[in-house]
Structures are given as C-alpha cells and as structure tokens.
Amino acid sequence: MKKIMLFLISFFLLLQVQSQPYTYPLPAYSPAQANLEYRERFRDMKFGLFIHWGVYSVLGDGEWVMYHKKIPYDNYKRLADFFNPVGFSAKEWVQMAKNAGMKYITITSRHHDGFSMFKTNASSYNIVDATTYKNDILKELAKEAEKEGIALHFYYSLVDWGRTDYGHGKRIVDGKPENTEWENYISFMKKQLTELITNYPNVKCIWFDGHWDRKDANWHYDELYSLIHKLNPEILIGNNHHMPPLPGEDLQMFEKDLPGENKTGYRKDNSIGALPLETCETINNSWGYNINDRNYKSVKQIIHLLVNAAGRNANLLLNVGPMPNGKIQSEFTDTLAAVGRWLQKNAETIYGTRAGDMQPQDWGIVTSKNKTIYVHLLKKINNDYIFLPGLENNIRTASLFGSKQDIRFKQVPEGLFIYLNNMIQDDIDTVIRLEVH
Ligand code: FHN
User: Fold this and answer.
1) Rounded to 5, what percent of the chain is helix, strand, coil?
2) In 244-383, at which residue ranges do the beta strands (DSSP E only) sit?
3) Could you tell me the distance, in angstroms and rounded to a whole number, from the CA of residue 210 to the centre of ligand 1?
C-alpha cells in the first residue's frame, strides 16, 4: 500500500513538473518605424473580415470536424479531392468586405488540420498540389485586396494534427513532444512563414493560433518572430495565446471577448496593454462553414459588437466561414451589407476614433477623435438624462449626430449630464456629438 502511495505521489509530482507552462526568455523588441505606423493605421481601421476556410468546409461541420468526429488523418486527407471551389471569386469577397465597411481581411492560410490554402514547397498538402482546383486562392485574394485598398492578414496555425514532427497528442518533456522531430516542425513553420511573407508581399499581419494546445512547449517564438520582422519589419505579429503579449508581438487579441471581459474564461491574466487591440467574433456560432448553424447574429448585435469594441479601443474582426464552393451564404452577406449601410452613415463616429476617457457604462460607450466625443447610447433610456462620470473635457456644444438638434447638458466636477427630454432614440445606436473647447 505504502509503495502504491509513493508511486502515485511521484507520478503526480512528475506530471506537475512536466505540465509547467514554458517560460519565454524572449529578447527585448523595439519595433521599426514602419511597424509603429502600421499599428496606428490598423487601430484606425476598426472593422475587419475574418475568414476560416479549408478542406473541412466540404463536411459542413466546422473546422474541428476531424478532431470531433475522430476521423483518422489518412481518411481526412481525402477531403482535398473534393475541395473544388469553382464559385470562389476574390473580387466578390473583397467587394463584400468593402461594402460592409471592413478595412482588412484576415484569412486562414493553414488551420489545425495542416492543409495549406496557398502554394507551398514545404508540404504537398496544399490547395495547388492536392486539389483538382489547383489555384492559389491567397494569391488571388492578395491581388484583389491590394487593388481595392484592403489590408491583408494571414492566420497561421501553430497546431498541426497531421504532421508526425508535430506529434499531436504526445506528452511534452523538456519543452518538446516526446519522440518527435520538434526542431523539424519549427523549421517547417519557418519555411512556410518565409513563403507567406515573400510571395505575398502585401501581407501586413501574421495571426498565430494554437499555443493553448501546448502551453508547456517551447515554440521558439524568438526565432519565429525575429524571422518575420527581419523579412518585413512592418508586419504585425499577434498570437491568440490568451496571455498578455510577449516581447516581439505587435497586437493583443481577444477571442470572443471584448478587452477587459473574460466571458470565455480563457485568460488567467486579464490585463490590457498598450498595443493595438483586436477582438474576434463569429457571425453565427461557428468559425468554419457549419451547415447546421442557424444562430445568426442580428445586424444590431454586430453593430453593438463593433461599437463596444471601438469604445474599448479595439477592432472587431468578424468571422464568416465560406461554403465549400467558394460562396458566402446569403444570411451572412445580407447582414454584412446592412452593417455597411449603418457604417456609411456613422463612419465618422467609428473609424479613426479612440476610446473616450470614460469607462464603458451600462447604457453604452464613448469614442473620440480630435476635439469631438461621440456618445453611443446602445439602449433605450427611460430617464430624462444620462450621466457621463469622470468626463472632464470642457464641452462647448452637444447635438444629435446626423441632425442639427442641439442637446442640453450640464457639467459638474464629477462628470457630464446630458438631457434627453423628448429626444427620439434610435433602436440601434443613438449618437450624441460633443464638441470640446
Ligand atoms: O481552435 C481555433 C478555432 O478553430 C478558431 O480558429 C479560433 C479563432 O480565434 N481560434 C482557436 C480557438 O482558440
């Protein structure tokens, strides 16, 4: 009995030692001027299109279908034979994003299933070499996005369920999966990242995902990040690792959470840093195409996400999962078009703004630009007034945005009262424009 106890104790101690998160002694990083400038342009953009697309879309059950349905990799790989997206049009996608008021597109260049959506010499499991379609859709998208003034970002998975050098499911010992060629996997990623940056020179951000699969592994971020910044110092690096940013990263991202919230529970440390912020969300409940998912967010919900993100200094990266034929379903395109119409009217209150000095309130948020503050009421207010605590700016005028209607206000040391008497409130967002002295 004593022996068994001893064995169990040492087994659990060993497990604990092995599952220690890897700590990153990353070198200090000073971003290049071009990088700092792109960070500001990125902050101004406010709204981007996230695209999860790969061979998994053929099964219409999301991008994790292989994992969830326990499909052996050899069988899963055959999906490439059926992936023939003849309906894909880079022009249509870019126009859809533009009409929605989106300023950038982030697309999955390779997801956890290891299928590359671009021509790569590092693996034959890619859209050009493994499908009958044979076209590099990233090339087409890159060309079209550049022509239309839309910035292009690439999602890149750290996880690979297929490669033996990744060793999916293996135990991590001393920062590496046991009995695998981990260094080989790292150099495979370096090859692909080099291709993505040199063959698609307008790419402006690499969006890593999958760290959470191996918190205790050494991902060699020092090498990956310095390679990217050496190839193009302007490129922003983001990593969806659910931790505060590491040295070498240029943006902080939040998955299905606004900065400061932690609804998903992904974060241990919920702090918000000084880097540009981005929050990503799905237009229904799925990232990759899911034929059964009818949980479409409404136009109002999307606008509220966007406004709430802007009021917290973050961009909204809104995801759609295109169908296997390359088309985007009408439920999504209709919503995006309606959001675009709203943005056309309200552009000034969103693009190029920063969060106002006031913390988000129960009724909404504020954005600001130069000497103007935009108060976004995201709820119908039954009171005669709202109060903006801590607003110290010296207000000159207040008016209903988009009309000449002046609004009464009163400044006190604790903040600002805005009187709403008889104001017709908008069902989505009533915007009040404050001019500061
Ligand atoms: O596992 C992925 C998931 O498929 C999707 O890509 C999202 C996007 O943020 N990230 C991962 C989950 O954290």
Assistant:
1) 30, 20, 45
2) 252-255, 277-282, 314-320, 354-355, 364-369, 372-377
3) 7
Protein residue closest via CA to atom 5 of ligand 1: 287
For range 254-281, the mean pLDDT: 92
* Among candidate residues 49, 48, 36, 45, the one with its CA nearest the CA of residue 275: 36
Residue finishing a domain among 322, 352, 382: 352
Q: 290 forms bridges with which residues in the sheet?
A: 61
What pLDDT does 25 receive? 83
Residue 393 falls inside a structural domain:
yes
Q: Please list, in sequence order, all residues whose beta carbon lies within 8 angstroms of the beta carbon of residue 91, skipping any fewer than 6 positions away.
A: 144
pLDDT tens, residue by residue, 96-108: 999 999 999 999 9
Higher pLDDT pick, 222 / 2: 222
Ligand 1 probe mutation, 56, 209, 241, most atoms within 8 A of CB: 209
Nearest CA to ligand 1 atom 3: 287
Does residue 179 form part of some domain? yes
Residue 242 is encoded by which pair of tokens?
């659910």
Domain with 253, as residue range(s), is 32-352
Task: Using alpha carbons only, give the angle 95, 197, 204 rounded to the nearest 5 degrees.
Answer: 50
Ligand 1 binding pocket includes 63 (Cβ within 6 Å): yes
- Cα distance between residue 240 and residue 266, in whole Å: 10
Q: 363-385: per-residue pLDDT in tens?
A: 999 999 999 999 999 999 999 99
The alpha carbon of 209 and the centre of ligand 1 are apart by a number of angstroms equal to: 7
Closest C-alpha residue for ligand 1 atom 7:
287
Q: How far apart are CA 214 and CA 168, in angstroms?
A: 10
> What mean pLDDT do residues 52-57 have?
98
Q: Choose the final residue of a domain: 330, 352, 374.
A: 352
Name the 3-class secondary structure at 341: helix
- 3-state DSSP of 79-133: HHHHCCCCCCCHHHHHHHHHHCCCCEEEEEEECCCCCECCCCCCCCCECCCCCCC
Q: How far is the CA of 64 from the centre of ligand 1 (A)?
A: 9
Give the helix/strand (H/E) hosting 421: none
- Locate all alpha helices (DSSP H) within 150-181, ordered by sequence: none
CATH number of the domain encompassing residue 400:
2.60.40.1180
Q: Both 150 and 44 in a single domain?
A: yes
240 lines ligand 1 (CB under 6 A): yes
| Co-location of 348 and 401 in the same domain | no
Residue 124: count of CB within 10 angstroms of its CB: 11
